[in-house]
Write a structure and sequence with these properties.
CATH class of chain A: Alpha Beta
Oligomer: heterodimer
Largest interface: A-B, 18 and 22 residues
Shape of chain A: globular
CATH architecture of chain A: 2-Layer Sandwich
Order of helices and strands of chain A: EHEEHE
Helix content of chain B: 40-55%
Structural class of chain A: alpha+beta
Number of helices of chain A: 2
Largest sheet of chain A: 4 strands, antiparallel
Strand content of chain B: 15-25%
Number of domains of chain A: 1
CATH class of the domain at 322-433 in chain B: Alpha Beta
CATH topology of chain A: Alpha-Beta Plaits
CATH topology of the domain at 322-433 in chain B: Calcium-transporting ATPase, cytoplasmic domain N
Number of strands of chain B: 22
Radius of gyration of chain B: 33 Å
Helix content of chain A: 25-40%
């Protein structure tokens, strides 16, 4: 399944790149992309595990850039 | 707000710095003021630095600024350390502003979906969310409102502005029975519409997700920049380290001087100008194109389009309108109207475009009961019994097979032959109208330096050559089967050409996918063609092809300008810094300045207007008006 999120307050291109790398490493995420310009995070993930993956992603983003808020698009 | 906060910190820091420098206080008190100033301006940078360190990704701009400013403090250059951070953050503010602005202008481009819908439920109008609307629900669209979902008008009439969907600026009237598309604006009347698409399948949603997906397909230049940044910063940091240590050891110079130069190096090593401005250029190019009714599915396609040297057009539905007209009736031993009547009756059950055109030319109601039987023989024609007479209608080979001696007329166009009771009775010449601005499209392509233009068609050679000649296309491939089209595209590619294929039909889909850039006509085009294409022209105007190429070239050259400019300035300052000709403050000024200039340069790509307003605009307007009978666009 494909999921899309908005990353509010995403303010630098390197944060976007770092988040992309980090989210790709999360177990259960098949592929993830962060588009800096549209502030959009798109990921392919297992539908049955998305409920456990989602908090991991938001925790991981908080660790890299605490001021970014993730919400479902 | 982050921005406001930063401004206050910068001002406080500036006052403290000025007090330390000019108030004539003792050295200890000045020192305290400097430290306070330093911390006031720098603490968010330091926090970010430590967090990055903790996450084991320390080589970002916060690292560079922290090390450079602390280094400056340690060698006694307090002012420089503080001013460095002040400039750095002023630059960040500028950057943030520029990025915000371009984000906003992009989101206004894709702001096609209204937030609520006026749903008619049990005779009352209820405001509800577009996501909750089901198929066949009845909704009301008031003047000035955006149409939320695709549907068919059941009542009312209004001028509908489709410019945000197709780029076409002339509104069209929509009244009962017409299809209206989400994203268009109903300007002056109240429309009652029966919904034919769910929110997620509506034209506007599809366009938005196509545009947003486009930003994720990165161009080669963008990938180059990302890769470059990955090696550039570590390289400069290492060089700075060597610069601080080796010359003092070898030459015996004082350490302070070389440490200062190394710190200057660090300041210049930030690749921000490239990392933001190059993707921004493509972002703007895609946005600007979509404003002109050209959907580009990714930065990589825009880049490929800029390098195209050969454009191959499909004929029917692309250069021509794909709607046929009976051009001429050539009867033999029968009245003209009589011949047309038999033809129209025979074609009564057929949905073939040619059949439709014959019935349209006949123009009267067809008495169903007169058509006793009719049999369509694919690729040949139709055999029907009408009022007891056997009518054969079809192409040359069908006549020959049925043993009817026909005469081939001299006219251009597709001949449809009619035989009644075994005897040849005449021929209808059907032709396809050439689109109004096809000729301009070809001329404009030649004007921008694309001289290899070819046309492919499944039609017979004489028709193909006639169309190509009237458009100014030199190379024609006629009598093609669908599979032949792709082999021609492949042949051109194998000759080393960079090929854009423009088409609309299902049979064009393989060629669209195989070519370097596939361009589909979104209005006439089949779903398969729109899906397979890299670029979609929403209003089927052929001159949008040269326009798209111009946008692509402009975008690519802006991206190249930024790469060359940013790298050039940085290289220059690195050399100057190495030999001690510039101060750290000058270095940060250069760095921030380059970023801001590059970003502003990139934003230019958003403005396709000046390209659009060139020679082509007048023609586009004319063709938009004249093609107002076209069927509405559909996106798969």
């Amino acid at each position: 399944m494909r999921y899309t999120y908005r990353l509010d307050n995403l303010c630098c291109a390197s944060c976007a790149a770092n988040i992309e790398i980090a989210v790709n490493k999360i177990d259960g995420v098949e592929s993830a992309k962060v588009a800096f310009m549209t502030t959009r995070l798109t990921l392919e993930a297992d539908e049955s595990r998305i409920d456990s993956i989602e908090p991991k992603i938001s925790k991981c983003i908080r660790k890299i850039e605490p001021h970014i808020k993730m919400r479902r698009a | 707000m982050f921005g406001m906060n930063t401004v206050i910190r910068i001002i406080v820091s500036g006052i403290l710095l000025a007090a330390g420098m000019f108030a004539g206080l003792g050295q200890d008190i000045s020192m305290i003021l400097y430290l306070a100033s330093y911390i006031a301006v720098g603490y968010p940078v330091f926090i970010d630095f430590f967090r990055a360190l903790y996450n084991r990704r320390p080589l970002d701009e916060n690292f560079l600024m922290t090390v450079a400013s602390m280094g400056a403090f340690l060698i006694g250059e307090y002012h420089e350390g503080i001013i460095l951070l002040i400039f750095f953050q002023v630059g960040e503010l500028f950057e943030k502003y520029a990025v915000d602005r371009s984000r906003r202008s992009i989101s206004s481009l894709v702001d096609l979906l209204p937030e609520h819908v006026n749903l008619v439920a049990d005779g009352e109008v209820v405001v509800s969310a577009p996501e909750d609307i089901r198929l066949d629900d009845i909704i009301i669209i008031r003047p000035g409102e955006r149409i939320p979902l695709d549907g068919i008008v059941t009542d009312g009439s209004s001028m509908v502005d489709a410019s945000s969907i197709t780029g076409e600026s002339v509104p069209r009237r929509a009244s009962a029975g017409d299809t209206v598309l989400s994203g268009c604006i109903s300007t002056n009347g109240v429309l009652t519409v029966r919904v034919t698409s769910l929110y997620s399948d509506s034209t506007a949603s599809r366009i938005i997700s196509m545009i947003e997906d486009a930003y994720e397909a990165k161009s080669r230049s963008e990938n180059f920049v990302t890769k470059f940044a990955r090696y550039y910063t570590p390289f400069v940091v290492l060089s700075a380290l060597l610069l601080a240590i080796i010359p003092p050891l070898v030459l015996g110079d004082p350490f302070n001087e070389w440490i200062y130069r190394a710190l200057t190096f660090l300041v210049i090593s930030c690749p921000c100008a490239l990392v933001i401005s190059v993707p921004l250029a493509f972002f703007g190019g895609i946005g600007g194109a979509s404003r002109a009714g050209i959907l580009v599915k990714g930065g990589n396609y825009l880049e490929a389009l800029a390098g195209v040297d050969t454009v191959v057009f499909d004929k029917t539905g692309t250069l021509t309108e794909g709607t046929f007209d009976v051009e001429k009736i050539i009867p033999k031993d029968i009245g003209e109207n009589e011949l047309l009547k038999f033809a129209a009756y025979a074609e009564f059950h057929s949905n073939h475009p040619i059949a439709v055109s014959i019935r349209k030319a006949y123009g009267r109601e067809i008495d169903n009961s007169a058509v006793l039987s009719s049999e369509e023989i694919a690729g040949s024609g139709i055999k029907a019994i009408i009022s007891g007479r056997e009518v054969l209608i079809g192409n040359e080979s069908f006549m020959a097979k049925s043993g009817i001696g026909f005469e081939r007329p001299d006219d251009f166009g597709t001949g449809v032959y009619v035989g009644i009771d075994g005897e040849y009775k005449g021929c209808l010449i059907i032709s396809d109208r050439i689109r109004k601005d096809s000729k301009d499209a070809v001329a404009m392509l030649k004007h921008i330096g694309i001289n290899n233009i070819a046309m492919l068609t499944g039609d017979i050679r004489s028709v193909g050559e006639h169309v190509a000649e009237s458009l100014g296309i030199d190379s024609v491939y006629a009598d093609l089967l669908p599979a032949d089209k792709i082999s021609i595209v492949e042949k051109l590619i194998s000759e080393g050409r960079s090929v854009a294929f423009v088409g609309d039909g299902i049979n064009d889909a393989p060629s669209l996918a195989r070519s370097d850039v596939g361009i589909a006509m979104g209005g006439m085009g089949s779903d398969a063609a729109v899906e397979a294409a890299d670029i979609v022209i929403m209003d089927d105007v052929p001159s949008k092809v040269p326009l798209a190429i111009k946008v692509a070239k402009k975008t690519r050259s802006i991206a190249m300008e930024n790469i060359i400019f940013a790298l050039g300035v940085k290289a220059l300052f690195l050399v100057l810094g190495m030999f001690g000709y510039i101060s750290m403050v000058e270095a940060v000024f250069a760095d921030v300045g380059v970023s801001v200039i590059a970003i502003l340069n990139s934003i230019r790509t958003l403005r396709t207007k000046e390209i659009n307003l060139g020679r082509s605009s007048e023609r586009q307007r004319i063709s938009a008006q004249e093609s107002s009978n076209d069927p509405p666009i559909t996106l798969s």
